[in-house]
Amino acid sequence: MKYAYRLGKAMMLPVACLPVAGLLMGLGYWIDPVGYGTGSLAAAIMIKAGSALVNNMSLLFALGVATGLADEQDGTAALASVAAWLVIQNILDTDNILLLTGGRTDPYSFGSIHNQMIGIFCGILGAYCSNRYRGAHFGRGLEIFEGRRFVMIAAVGHAAVFSLLLLLIWPYFYRASVYIGTSLLDTGPVGVGIYMFLNRLMIPTGLHHALNSVFWFDLAGISDLNHFWSGAGTYGQTGQYMTGFFPVMIFGMPGAALAMYRAAPKEKRKMAGGLLMSAAVCSLLTGVTEPMEFSFMFLAPGLFFLHAFLTGLSGFLCAALPFRIGFNFSAGLLDYFMALNSPMAENPQLLWPLGIIFFLLYYTVFYFCIIKFRLKTPGREE
C-alpha cells in the first residue's frame, strides 16, 4: 500500500501538464468546430499542441513515474524509462507484429499498446533499474558497462523480455474486451451502464478502446458515433452509448474536484486547487478526464472504483430516459453545444437537471469517503 501511495504521488508530475493540453484542444475545437483546424491556423496550432501531450500520455507517465520513484534525481531513471518505452513501442509496433508472428496475430489488437499502463510500467522499470544497478561494477576491462550505462542495458533487456510476454498475451486481453462488449449488445439500459462502468475501469490499460470500438464504430454494426453525426441512425436509440458520459464529465468531475479541494487541509488548498480546478475546467469544457482521474486513481483507488460505478449509473439512467446526445471528440460542454443541431439529438435539455444531480452526487460521495476513510487525495498527502 505504501508503494502504491508513492506511485500515486509520483504521477502528480505528469498529471500536472495534462489540463493545459485539454484546454488547448478544447479552445482549438471551439475556434474551428467543423474543420478541426483545417479552417484556422490558430485552431490547428492549439489542437496539435494539445494532442501532442494527450496522445503521448504514456511517455509522460514513464518519465514522471521514473523521476518520482528514483532514489537519485540525476535523470538516469528517467532516461532508462524512455529507453524501455521506446523498445516496447517499437517491438510491438503494428507493422512489426506481422513479421514477429508470421501473420498469425492480428496487428490491430496492438494499436492500443500505446497506453498509460505501459508508460507507468516503464517508469517503474526505469526507477527499479536505476536504484538497483547504478552501483554495478564488473572489474577491469569491463568498466565501460558499469554504473549508469548498465542501468540502460538492464532497462532495455527487461523491456525486450516484457515485450515478448505482451506479444503472447495482449491479443487475448484485446479479444476478451471485444467479447465483453459484444455480449452486452441488446441488453438495454443495463448493458449501457455496464459498458460505461467497464469503460472507466479500463482507462489505465488502454483496452477501453477495444470496448469503445464495439459500440462507437462499425465493429459490431452499431457505429453509434458515426450514425449520430450522419443522421443515419435510429432516433431514440442512436447516441445511447455516448450520452451517459456528459453528466459525468461536465458536472460529475467538477463535483469531485470541489470535494477533494474542500477535503484538503486549509494550508494545502491553494496547492491542491491549482491542479484540481484546472483539471475540472478541462473535463467540463473538453471532456478530457484523465488529468482528474489520474490525480486520485492510485492515491485512492477506491474512489476510482466509485467513479466508474457512478459513470455506469449515469449511462443506465440516460439510456432509460428519452435522452440522446453524442460527441465528436469527448463529452464536454463544447461537444454538447455542437451536437444540439444533430437530427439524432433527443431531449438534450435533460442534461441540466441530470447534471446537477450528478454534481451533488459526486461531491457528496467523494467528500464523505475522503473524510470517513482518510483517503490520500491531492493536498492530503503526507
What do you see in this structure?
- This protein has 19 helices and no strands.
- The protein has 382 residues and is mostly helical.
- It folds into 2 domains: 65-183, no CATH class; 186-382, no CATH class.
- The two termini are 14 Å apart.
- The mean pLDDT is 88.
Distance between the termini: 14 Å
Order of helices and strands: HHHHHHHHHHHHHHHHHHH
| Quaternary structure | single chain
Number of strands: 0
The largest β sheet comes out as: none
Give the integer mean of the pLDDT values.
Answer: 88
What global shape is seen?
globular
Number of domains: 2
The secondary-structure class comes to mainly alpha
Number of helices: 19
- Name the helicity range: 55-70%
